[in-house]
From TrEMBL, chains A, B:
<dbReference type="GO" id="GO:0009030">
    <property type="term" value="F:thiamine-phosphate kinase activity"/>
</dbReference>
<feature type="binding site">
    <location>
        <position position="77"/>
    </location>
    <ligand>
        <name>Mg(2+) 2</name>
    </ligand>
</feature>
<dbReference type="GO" id="GO:0009229">
    <property type="term" value="P:thiamine diphosphate biosynthetic process"/>
</dbReference>
<feature type="binding site">
    <location>
        <position position="213"/>
    </location>
    <ligand>
        <name>Mg(2+) 5</name>
    </ligand>
</feature>
<feature type="binding site">
    <location>
        <position position="261"/>
    </location>
    <ligand>
        <name>substrate</name>
    </ligand>
</feature>
<comment type="pathway">
    <text>Cofactor biosynthesis; thiamine diphosphate biosynthesis; thiamine diphosphate from thiamine phosphate: step 1/1.</text>
</comment>
<feature type="domain" description="PurM-like N-terminal">
    <location>
        <begin position="30"/>
        <end position="139"/>
    </location>
</feature>
<dbReference type="GO" id="GO:0000287">
    <property type="term" value="F:magnesium ion binding"/>
</dbReference>
<keyword id="KW-0067">ATP-binding</keyword>
<keyword id="KW-0460">Magnesium</keyword>
<comment type="function">
    <text>Catalyzes the ATP-dependent phosphorylation of thiamine-monophosphate (TMP) to form thiamine-pyrophosphate (TPP), the active form of vitamin B1.</text>
</comment>
<feature type="binding site">
    <location>
        <position position="311"/>
    </location>
    <ligand>
        <name>substrate</name>
    </ligand>
</feature>
<feature type="binding site">
    <location>
        <position position="32"/>
    </location>
    <ligand>
        <name>Mg(2+) 3</name>
    </ligand>
</feature>
<keyword id="KW-0547">Nucleotide-binding</keyword>
<dbReference type="GO" id="GO:0005524">
    <property type="term" value="F:ATP binding"/>
</dbReference>
<feature type="binding site">
    <location>
        <position position="56"/>
    </location>
    <ligand>
        <name>substrate</name>
    </ligand>
</feature>
<feature type="binding site">
    <location>
        <position position="212"/>
    </location>
    <ligand>
        <name>ATP</name>
    </ligand>
</feature>
Length: 319, 319
């Protein structure tokens, strides 16, 4: 058993590898608050996401995967704004001070910090149901952020990568599969926030959102914010390889439309920008697939008649 | 029952009263992340604190007090740095979507936002054990923040306001008292972050910390960070009025030394700055009391032999 301060000092302190002179960290963890130097002419981009055991990740998930995932889902929000991630704070609740679990958790969290050049600059640890809340802070040149409200009639509707991995991986986990090197499980427990893609889409996309609640729900947010409608071309949806084999055709389509937790970027672009954006993402080996188009009106056309509409806390079952 | 999006839209959206042109909020809640405009030449001061039901606040505390307290304890960290608070994000976990509770909670939270000129710019809501995690962001001129590591031999050790209210109020609550207009209960459930005091102490105090873990524990953090020792003058400790009557002399002293949750500022100052600081705080009707002095060496002298040493999660009982 460890005390709070020892846990924080040993496992949750800033990682020296991310604390260089370019980090903008004037004072890291260890005081009442951290001190950060924002870049001149930059807007701050800030978001928070909480992951609760048994709801957002399985109780028996490897601790390092929980650490990765908790940070990844927060970073995905910065990706959807086109921001460069810079700093994060973590609030960790644990039923007991299980040092071995925290050490593994920390390993996954810090590995993603290093991979995405994010510095952990503070946080707290408390007793409670196991949960992780991660606040991420990024930067972007003022006025350049990708928002939800910029979709225009005539825009192409497109998505990065492939859909259905979140729900497909969860189904495989629930079926007893545990090998995180399998693609579906990796997409569910080890999502890769599309940070570089988001930054490459700045100046090209008219609107962006990450697919966390499910494609239909997240598209709905963009349409509502932009005051437009969309037609989906369901046959064009890029499904994660192996999804249909694992779930069957109906459930695979449901996973892609309403499963959520895919952490791909759903974007709208003027037709003349689409090819340019597709080439830019090809440079990082990421597909950008047209899945429909934006038009005047409201709502989504082209949805199969019996499709679910996505995920909301309190209104559905546990995932 | 309400859905997640409806709860966020109705109760947890930014308050228009805090969203003026001076707020620095380029884009508030409703997108993947918020967009903030930091001030030129300012450092960001960021902290997060989580409050869990049954551990940091009683399950039967009024929801509006829970909202006030969750924000107040985070703001107290900004006060201890001397920062001007600007923005916050909230992550709220709830076992059920109890709209009436959230409405009351929100009322207390937003009232303190308005009183301290803080704008709520984002957050999330999830199912889980009831808990609130609040990330606060403030600003201070670069290099001016009050840190823990600046105490020097010869400094005066002083504390704002009065001590023991956190533990004293908890004891009254546990004894069945419920009138939040009573001073001890108010200090426990409705702490007032010493934000203006912290800003007035910039340029005067050599080190500062807020009294959250307990005077001895928090003083220990300052001494460790500064590489100095201190002698306490226990007879000078300013106790909250009524504390000794409520708890008895021994428990009252214990509350002041080790109870925690007082959210006063513990500061060190050169002797020639102490009177100036005291006059500055008198202008906002706040006492600044010398309770000891800093010297070479390490550790705390002058502690009564049987005093407890403060609060750590995982190493003590629940408060």
């Amino acid at each position: 058993m460890h005390g709070e301060f020892e846990l924080i000092t040993r496992w949750l302190a800033p990682d020296a590898a991310t604390l260089g002179p370019q980090s903008g960290v004037a004072l890291g963890a260890g005081d009442d608050a951290c001190l950060l130097d924002p870049g001149a002419g930059q807007q701050l981009v800030v978001s928070v996401d909480t992951s609760v055991e048994g709801r957002h990740f399985p109780a028996d998930a490897p601790a390092w995967a929980v650490g990765h995932r908790a940070l990844a889902v927060s970073l995905s929000d910065l990706a959807a704004m086109g921001a460069r991630p810079r700093w994060c704070l973590m609030s960790l609740a644990l039923p007991t001070a299980d040092g071995a679990w925290v050490a593994e958790f920390s390993r996954g969290f810090h590995a993603l910090c290093r991979a995405t050049d994010v510095c952990l600059t503070g946080g707290d640890v408390t007793t409670g149901e196991r949960a992780v809340s991660v606040t991420v802070m990024g930067e972007i040149a003022a006025g350049q952020a990708l928002r939800r409200d910029g979709a225009r009639p005539g825009d192409v509707l497109a998505v990065t990568g492939a859909l259905g991995g979140g729900a497909g991986g969860l189904a495989r986990w629930q079926a007893g599969e545990r090998d995180l090197e399998r693609e579906l499980l990796a997409r569910y427990l080890l999502p890769q926030p599309r940070l570089v893609a988001g930054q490459l889409l700045v100046g090209k996309a008219t609107a962006a959102i990450d697919v966390s609640d499910g494609l239909l729900a997240d598209l709905g947010h963009v349409l509502d914010a932009s005051g437009v409608g969309a037609t989906l071309d369901v046959e064009c949806l890029p499904l994660v390889p192996g999804l249909t084999d694992a779930l069957g055709e109906t459930a695979a389509l449901d996973a892609a439309l309403a499963g959520g937790d895919d952490y791909e970027l759903l974007v709208t672009l003027a037709p003349e920008s689409f090819d340019e954006a597709r080439r830019a993402l090809a440079s990082i080996d990421l597909e950008l697939t047209q899945i429909g188009h934006i038009h005047e009106g409201q709502g989504i056309q082209g949805i199969p008649p019996d499709a679910r509409r996505g995920w909301q806390h309190f209104s559905g079952g546990t995932p």
